[in-house]
From TrEMBL:
It is found in: Cytoplasm. It comes from Motilibacter rhizosphaerae. This is Putative cold-shock DNA-binding protein. The keyword Transcription regulation applies. SMART domains: CSP. Residues 1-66 form the CSD domain. GO terms for cellular component: cytoplasm.
Length: 67
């Protein structure tokens, strides 16, 4: 499963971006793609693992889990 680091995440808007380990395009992440209970959010510089899926505007992160 690919891993990366959260570049930024806006709690009010419910989305952000993840920088992939090893480079490549930053991935969009929506709060509904975070696997957690309760309030779904991520913090800057937090380490995560995820799957890459094709969204409406290109690749995006799904099944995002904090590691």
């Amino acid at each position: 499963m690919p891993q990366g680091t959260v570049k930024w995440f806006n709690d009010e808007k419910g989305f952000g971006f993840i920088a992939q380990d090893g480079g490549g395009q930053d991935l969009f992440v929506h709060h509904t793609s975070i696997e957690a209970t309760g309030f779904r959010s991520l913090a800057e510089d937090q380490r995560v693992e995820f799957e890459i899926t094709q969204g409406q505007r290109g690749p995006q992160a799904s099944q995002v889990r904090v590691i």
